[in-house]
Every structure is written in C-alpha cells, then in structure tokens.
Amino acid sequence: MRQVPLTATVVALAVVTLVGVGSCTPDRQADPGGRGGGLAQAGSAEQGTGAGGPSDPDQRTRPTPTPTKAKPKPRPKPTPTRTAAPERAAPTAPTRAAGCPQGEYQREVETYLAKLGGFGRVTVDGRQSAADCAAIKKFQQRYDIRPAAGRAGPTTYDVSKRLATTDTRRCKAGSSGTTFCIDLTRQTTWAVRGGKVVWGPTVTRTGMPGYATPAGTYKINYRNIKEWSDPYEVWLPYWQHFTRGMGYHQTTTYLHEKSIGSHGCVNLLPADARRAWELGKVGSRVVLFGRRPGT
C-alpha cells in the first residue's frame, strides 16, 4: 500500500475547504426579494433609520422571553362619559378660480355683465369667484379681449360699460327693412328690423382723429365679400359701403387698440362683420349719431 505524504493531505483538505466557502458566499449585488440595492448586513436597517426593519423568517422561530411579573396598578376611578356634540362645518368661503386673478374693476364688470346677461351667473359683490371668472372669460372671448383670462381689467371694464349703457332706442330706425345703427360716442353698433334689435349691440371702432366718421343717415350702395383698398393696400372683408369711401368691414388690426382707428370706416370683429353681411343688402339704411371721443 502506497503511503501519501502528510504534507499533501493537509494541502488537499485546505483546498476543499476554500472551494466550499466560495460557493456558499451570497452575491451582494443579487436582489432575491426584488427590492433593489442588494443584501443588507444584519442590523443595517435599524442603524440607518432608527426603526426595526421587517422580521426575517428566523426571527419568528426564536423563543420569546418570559415576561417578568409586574405589580398590579390601582384601577382608575370611572368618570362619567359625555356625548360629544356634532362638529359643525366651517362656513365656506367664496370659491376662487385657479389662475383667474381679481381685477381692479371687479364690481363694475360684475354689475355690467349682470345687466347684459347671457354670459353666465355673476354675483355683484366685488369678489372673484369661479362663476364670475367663467362669465368674464366668456365675455372676453366673445368680444376678442386679450388675454381672455377672466380678469376684470381696464379693457373689459371699458367694453362692458359701453355695451351696458348703449340705449338702442336712440337710433331712429325705419319701420321696414334692416337699419344699421352706430353710436359714435360709445363706439357700439347694432341692427334693427321691424322695430326689434336683431343683432348686437356689439363693439366697433370708427374714424381716428383727422378721419372722423360723420353722423347722419345713409344707405348701403355697394357690397363686396372682399374689397381691396387702393390707398391703404389692404383687403377689407365683408365690405358694405355707405358714403365717401366709408363702410362696414372686418377689422384688420386689434379692435380694442384705442390709440388708432379707421380712416372713417366702421370696423367690426370677424364674427360681427359676417353677421352684418348676412343682414345687410344694397338699400339698407345706416344711421350714425354722436361723436367718437377725441375726434
């Protein structure tokens, strides 16, 4: 029988021991629980947060220590119970619309919109609410006031005041056919047929200083769905001429820019210009009264 040297035996046992340890070492990058971050060392969760982590399976099998017997505490004397009163709801504050700030003319605009009607419910109290905001936005969108953000600013105040204070009875409209009326002072316009207002009042902008639109009674004598202006080199949509090169047409600039104006024409918003075109015809009367401020 061949004898193996003692030194070789010791070396072989050492190799087996090292290989066995290497195959059982857990990979610290592995995440068998699906939580990410690898395996934590024992007690690391408690050290990091100050609170114990979830129990491991081996913790459930450990015997629980026997509790020491504590001295019984004296029983507290019973106190009479009282039924708590029901909690009252706090009064609700007026709802404010997100992103809809209150303007410096809040109460005035509320008053004029309530008088005009047709833009939704408003409460005349000088405080912005969700309903007020929606009504003001609708008004601004109708009359192309920019931005239509629901804020009762100077332009919204000016337009709503002009419309709410327009007296359609001041126009001496005929009893037959369609009559277009222009209040030059308030810069508003509307149409009357058979004694009833069938369009407007809506906003307009007439001649600027040096080109004042004259008051008087005229008749539409020429119409063109799109007229070219020779002196000013611009298209005039929904053109309805009534005197001296002046007529109704769709505005080519921002209507509420009061520092400018037309060269005598009656500027209209796009939707209003279309409606005036539908109502008018050659022979329709045009009545202008008052005077644009500053002209």
Automatic annotation (TrEMBL):
Residues 23-103 are annotated as: Disordered. Residues 178-289 form the L,D-TPase catalytic domain. Keywords: Cell shape, Cell wall biogenesis/degradation, Peptidoglycan synthesis, Transferase. Pfam families: YkuD. The active site is at H249 (proton donor/acceptor), C265 (nucleophile). Pathway: Cell wall biogenesis; peptidoglycan biosynthesis. SUPFAM superfamilies: L,D-transpeptidase catalytic domain-like (SSF141523), PGBD-like (SSF47090). CDD domains: YkuD_like. Residues 80-98 have a biased composition (Low complexity). InterPro entries: LD-transpeptidase, LD_TPept_cat_dom, PGBD-like_sf, Transpep_catalytic_dom. This is L,D-transpeptidase family protein.
